Amino acid sequence: MSSGNADQKELGTFLKARRAELDPLQVGLPDTGPRRRVAGLRREEVAQLAAISTDYYTRVEQGRMQASVPVLEAIVRALRLTDDQRSYLFEIAGRPPIEAPVRPDRGVTPHTRRLLDQLTGSPALVLSDTMDVLAWNRLAAALLIDFGQVTEEDRNYVWLLFNDPVLRALYDDWETGAHACVAYLRMHTARRPDDPRLQRLLARMRPHTDFRNWWQTREVAVQGTGNKVFHHPTAGTLTLDWDTLTSSTAPDQHIVVWTAQPGSTSEKGLQRLAAAAYEADLPPAVVNTRS
User: Fold this and answer.
1) Ranges for the HTH cro/C1-type domain (predicted)?
2) What is the pTM of this model?
């Protein structure tokens, strides 16, 4: 829906329904008692919470004015809309979809955890936008490194790729892989330049000459699939395809899964690695702490 196709009637109905669900005490306003003629919040109360004039809000709700993006965001906060309600509001207001702010306290869901555990034949892990390793299965720990033995501060794929000699040695073409990770991080800065985890990571990575040089080139990329060659000390040389799956309910979390061509020596190598990992009962883990 473009800015010229706003559904003003639906917009007004939607806003009325949402303010009817709230009472003044819920949003920190005084309750004037039983004499209120409307259920929920009055227009002037929504306007007060959104820091706009009552006349402005009334014209928006009545379809006589198209709200700007900042005003829509203020209304979202005033009416305490959910992410889904916010997206719907922007759609019917005729504004382009605006990415919802990431909830920094959202961890990996039990559904995602179960999905990882059931991928017994494929290494898989969950990465955040800043490439923090949030969760992994047994085979990912066996293929790469045991992330459970890494401190949470260091449990970041970029950090480990530059600083962990075991992970670095696995890569047949470390430079290409590391360069791609830097380009991904640069893309992330455009979306959320003030992300505190990103800023802490950049501060830690800048002493690395390769990282600093690649960062300054300002190359950007978001690659959802590819191919990697690993030289594993027990499974041998593995040529693996990887795909990235993004959750619709947690768009800041990305599941990376490695697979091998059926019947290939790499598939047999993964099978040997999986058998050893499950025999040793190498534990999977999940990190729910986000700051």
Assistant:
1) 36-85
2) 0.66
